[in-house]
Design brief:
Blueprint: H1 10-17, E1 31-34, E2 38-42, E3 46-51, H2 64-82, E4 86-94, E5 100-102, E6 107-116, H3 124-130, H4 135-151, H5 159-177, H6 184-200, H7 202-210, E7 214-216, E8 226-227, E9 233-234, H8 242-245, E10 246-248, H9 249-268, H10 279-293, H11 299-323, H12 329-351
Antiparallel strand pairs: 1-2, 2-3, 3-6, 4-5, 4-6, 7-10, 8-9
Helix pairs in contact: 3-9, 4-10, 5-6, 5-7, 5-11, 6-12, 9-10, 9-11, 11-12
Length: 352
């Protein structure tokens, strides 16, 4: 047993991995980036992701074994849409002289996911923000996603189970958001509209479960995770909780469409609504999805999912208020409010 006093701290690991000489054949500087759950290190052609030893409601990465298992699960799941972009898992080892190394011999003290580095300018988010997104590139990405959904494992839920699941999640969104300085009347209005639709229009949702449209999906399908190289790849799935990956195929695609529409609207300085310029991006995604799969979801169903997912994103923004420094709170609160406004705009399309 190695004494805990000699096990390197997270700070020690970050300091080592921020050095160019930590990596084989690294010719340039290393760019370290901190996220809530990881430290990410960018070299010229590789990305190394180190999980933080942390515990949250849905994860417990305090022990190295848990981080090891999660790294391998992340690679396995992301190869579904990311292919050989995900190179594997590398060990971080402590040698006899107390020196850290990537791979080699010595005691394994941590593990990193290793990926090829993708061009930032080719990400869907970057293309939208730069105004350089071409419809053909978006169609190719939608075709890749459609193929993934056709192959994805179907999750067998009854219609009643699926509606109850959505109803509970809508209620959970309201309860979480009501703890923050956000307009209660708007939260109540959005929750009532979504839950009323689940009660009054059950057929919208029942057919999704009955037709086998609930699958183990990506789980975090945002524009910053879609790379428009040839062929397109999708990275950074939600790997730590299988239940959160269980979604209607159209729910997940509606989430991506909602985020794309939000970015287009921010770029153009206009609000996204049923007449907004942003909607054309979402329409292109669904047009290709329908061509590839034959699945034609009702407009009201897509609008419901967009509204529901916008509230989920508002909740995630609000949770940052608990973790980030005081000076960042205003930014997260403002972002949460923008998502609530988006959710309300979409709700008009299914609750009228």
């Amino acid at each position: 047993m190695t004494p805990s006093s000699v096990i390197p701290s997270l700070e020690d690991k970050v300091a080592f991995l921020s050095r160019a000489d930590a990596y084989p054949d690294c010719k340039g500087p290393v760019e370290p980036l901190e996220t809530h759950m990881s430290w990410v290190f960018l070299t010229e052609d590789r990305v190394y992701k180190l999980k933080k030893p942390m515990k949250r409601a849905l994860i417990d990465f305090r022990h190295a074994d848990a981080r090891h298992d999660n790294c391998h699960e992340e690679v396995r799941l992301n190869r579904r849409l990311g292919g050989d972009i995900y190179l594997g898992v590398e060990s971080l080892r402590l040698g006899a002289e107390g020196r850290l190394s990537l791979g080699g011999t010595g005691l394994a003290v941590d593990w990193l996911v290793v990926m090829k580095r993708l061009p930032e300018s080719a990400m869907l988010k970057a293309r939208i923000e730069a105004g350089t997104l071409e419809e053909q590139a978006l169609q190719r990405a939608a075709a890749v996603l459609s193929g993934f959904y056709r192959r994805a494992r179907v999750i067998h839920l009854t219609a009643e189970q699926y509606r109850a699941r959505l109803y509970k999640e809508v209620q959970s969104n309201q309860e979480a958001l009501s703890e923050y300085d956000l307009p209660n009347e708007q939260l109540q209005r959005l929750t009532e509209r979504q839950q009323a639709t689940l009660r009054s229009r059950p057929a919208l949702f029942d057919c999704r479960a009955e037709q086998g449209m609930i699958v183990e999906a990506h789980g975090d399908l945002r524009p910053e995770h879609v790379c428009l190289i040839e062929p397109p790849v999708v990275i950074d799935c939600l790997e730590f909780n299988r239940d959160l990956r269980i979604q209607d195929r159209v729910d997940e695609l509606a989430f991506l469409a909602m985020e794309c529409e939000r970015l287009v609207s921010q770029r153009d300085g206009s609000a996204t609504n049923s007449e907004g310029v942003g909607v054309r991006v979402g329409d292109a995604l669904f047009d290709e999805y329908t061509r590839e799969t034959g699945d034609t979801p009702p407009v009201a169903l897509v609008a419901f999912y967009k509204s529901y997912r916008a509230m989920v994103r508002a909740k995630l923004c609000a949770w940052h208020l608990d973790d980030d420094p005081q000076q960042q709170r205003g930014r997260w609160l403002e972002k949460a409010q923008r998502y609530l406004d988006l959710a309300e705009g979409y709700s008009v399309q299914f609750s009228g």
